[in-house]
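Worked problem 6 (solution included).
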Amino acid sequence: MTPVTLQILIVLAVYTIGVMVLGFLSYRKEATITDFLMANREFKYFVLFSAVFGANISAVTLVGVPGLSYHIGWVTWAYFCTTWAWLTPLFYYTIGSRAYPLSKKFDIVTISELLGKRWADRKIQIISAIFLLFYLIPYMMVGIIGGGKTFVGLTHGFIPYWTGCLLVTVIVCIYVLIGGMRGAAWVNTFQTAVFLIGSLAIFLVIVNSLGGFGNATSSIVDKYPELLNRSKMPWQRFFSYGIVCALAVPVFPNVFSRLLTGKSPKELKKIVMIYPFAGIILFIFMAYSGMWGHIHFSGLKGAESDAILGMILAKYAPAWMAGVLGAAIFAALMSTLDSQLLAIGQILMKDFILPRRKDNAAKKSDTKWSRLVVLLFALLAFFLALVKPAGIIKIVEWGFGGFASMFFPVIAALYWKRCGKGAVLASILVSQFLNIALPLGLIPAAQLGGFLPAFWSIVGGGIILVIGALITPAPDKQKTDDFFASFAGK
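Solution. The predicted structure is:
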């Protein structure tokens, strides 16, 4: 181990200790299952913002975006932000403000639970829950893969990929198992500050090391001019990814449940104002940093570029600062991974375990079982990450499509009285079939018109939903009115 690597690891160890301390401080000895999974819906503005923003900003941002930007250039930031930064926060309020009173009245925590109770149908609830779990696992892998690759880049390979993956998994499991949703949110508040400040520091360090913004960009102009135009990003892909991102994020299981943890919908309204600016700035910093990686690290192939930010930091930053900036990367990926683990516990408990009980009541032992479920799924994601699947962005594109396909059913549940359960069930099944089958070549890629397969799964599901709702009988009026009565005065 070199002195430089030792300094980096010491700084990362200090960050880890801080995370652990917050986890222990949030521990509640007699925590109920509601407290463990939802922190009793007690969060105010800044903690709620950090919980939601942290659940959204992940290894995709600080690992995947620089890795993609390395290959296609500056357009990466717009690829992610054109619709996401503005529409996603609006959809947070569109969905969250309606789901919040329902969550209080019917104790709703998950998307699948919302759909099941809206149409009083267990099939819809179970099928939705299965698909949500199906996509959560690869999405969890993204954070673990990002952690492993970042450790390799920062330590020049001293810490191997598998060890980095294991360290990230263990650290997140410890504070989630100890503090549950409250612990994760407290840690996320700290982590959000770390990766927002850290991303600015990363950007400034890289700019300074390359002789300034103009000099760095001039180097790209001279050697890699294609990285400064949209030649590597067809408009169809650009457009479809914007739609997929904007619709997927508000219905991420880990984000949706956090929209319900505020003291009131007013807290949610406040975060909509600041969310776009924080997101856009973060993506710009990461996209340019990844593109500039070509200057001293040319020739990276495929998913190798996911490690570019760690490589840049290890080369340009002083050892101690590389450790601090590396902590920013871990803060981002851990803040999403912890929310995903809790979301899995929420789905299994609220959609599968509690409904099977005659009284649908929670027990004291439920918190213990939720912790066990979180641990088992974390280990599953860890072992799958060791397979070293495709690059982070490839995994994300597929997973995002699966989540985005749930957007229209959720909107129908919250706003469309006329929509019946048959239409919703058909929409879910068709859209999920397309999202899984199209990337496998069910329809030749040339026939997709250049759009992402996920885009067509969303379109297909939306069309089925509308047609199905119009040609099938309306749901029971009394039950529907009782459900929508929760919005009276909203």
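Discussion: The chain has a mean pLDDT of 84.
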